[in-house]
Amino acid sequence: MSDAQVEPAVPHRPHRLPEGTDLEREAPAEAPSTTPRVQSPFSPDEEDLVAPLTLVLLRHGVTEMTTSRRMSGSGVPGPALSAAGRVQAAKAADLVYGMGRRTWMQLPHVTRVLASPMVRTQETAGAVGRRVGAHVETEPGIKEVDFGVWEGLTVPEIAERDGDAIHRWRRAEIAAPEGESIAEVGERGYAVVKRLAQEHAAECMAGRDVPRGIALVSHAVAIKSIVGTVLGMPASQWGLIWPSPASTSVLQVRARYDGSIAETHVLAVGVPVE
C-alpha cells in the first residue's frame, strides 16, 4: 500500500549535538543498525532526517461489547477481553514479535509497547509486552473516544433516542452527548505520534541514530483518527477507515533533526490476525 522501497542498510552518520550537550555524560553510540531503511523515492533528502521510526497501531481483541455491537468507549474502564479476544491478543502479539524477524524484514523490532488505559487494551498490550520482552507503558492519548451518554448502546438504540445524531457524529459534525468528537480524538492521538517522533529524534541526535519500533495498542476510533490525520483526510472521512479487532496498521515516521515530522508513510491499514 506504500510506494516505499528497500534500500541497503545506511551506516551511522555523526550528528552535530545540540548546543550545551555534555559529551562526557553521553552514552556510547550503539552499533550501526543492520535494519535496511525504507524510503519512498519521493521522500525528503535523507541527509536532513534521522533514522525511521515505525509505529505499529494495534487494535485490542474482541470483548462481549464488540460482539454485541454496543458502543464501548473510554467513559468506563471495561470491558475485559472475551475468551476469543484473548486468543486474538496472543496471535497479534506473535505477529508483532515476528516483524523484522519473519515478516516485514525491512522494519525494526518492536521494543516499546504503549497502551490506552482501558482494560481491553491493557490486556492485549500485556500479551504483546510478554512476547517482545517490554514493559507496557500506559498512554491516555490513545484511549478510545468518550461516547458519553451513548456508552453501552447500539446504533439502533441511539437512533431511537437521538435521531440522526450518531450519523452526524460519524461525519465529525458533533461530539457525542457529554462525550467527544472524532476530531478531538484525532488531535490527542496525533499529539502522541508527534511526541514519540521528538523523543526518537532526540535519541538519534544523542548518538544512537538507529531505526526503532513502537507498538501502540489502541481502539477503532483512535486508530482510524490517527491514520486519517496522517493521510490528511478531513475528519468527516475517517469513518471510512475500519481497523478490525486485533488488526495492525503500520506507520513509518520520518523525523528531522529537531524532532519535527517531515512525512509519514502509511505502510498498512487493518491487517487482520489469521
TrEMBL record:
InterPro entries: His_Pase_superF_clade-1, His_PPase_superfam, PGM_Phosphatase. It holds the Pfam family His_Phos_1. SUPFAM superfamilies: Phosphoglycerate mutase-like. GO terms for molecular function: phosphatase activity. Gene3D superfamilies: Phosphoglycerate mutase-like. Residues 16-28 have a biased composition (Basic and acidic residues). CDD domains: HP_PGM_like (cd07067). One of its GO terms (cellular component) is cytoplasm. Residues 32-42 have a biased composition (Polar residues). Residues 1-45 are annotated as: Disordered. This is Probable phosphoglycerate mutase.
